[in-house]
Amino acid sequence: MVDGFDVLREREVESWLSVGNGVIGTRGSLEDDDDASNPGTYVAGAYVQGSDEGSGPELAPVPDWIRLVPLVSDTAVTLLTGTVVELHRALDLRHGVLTRTWCQSLDSGLQVWFRSARFASMADPQILVLWAELEADGAEAHFVAGGEEPVLREIPARIGAVELATVTRCPPGQVVRLGAVRRPWAGEERSAAKVLADADRQGVTRLFERHRAAWERRWGNADVVVEGDPEAQRALRFAVYHLISAGEASGTSSIGARGLTGPGYHGHVFWDTEVFALPFFFAAHPPTARGLLAYRHRLLPAARAKAAAMGYRGALYPWESADTGEEVTPPFAYGPSGERIPILTGSQEHHIAADVAWATWSYWAWTGDEDFLLTCGAEILVETARFWASRARRRRDGRLHIGKVIGPDEYHESVDDNAFTNLLARWNLERAAEIVEHLSDSRGDGREVLSRLACQSGEAERWRRVAAGLVDGFDPASGLYEQFAGYFALEDLAAAELAEPPFAADVVLGSRRLRRSQIIKQADVLMAAHMLPEALPPEVATANYRYYEPRTSHGSSLSPAIHAAVAARVGAADDALSYFHMAAGIDLGDEMGNAAQGVHMAALGGLWQAAVAGFGGARVGLDALRVDPRLPPSWRRLAFPVTFRGARVEVDVAGNTLTLSLDAPARVAVGSRPPVRLRAGRHVARRRLGEWSAPKEVALR
Question: Going by CATH, does the domain composed of 225-615 fall within 1.50.10.10?
Answer without folding.
Answer: yes
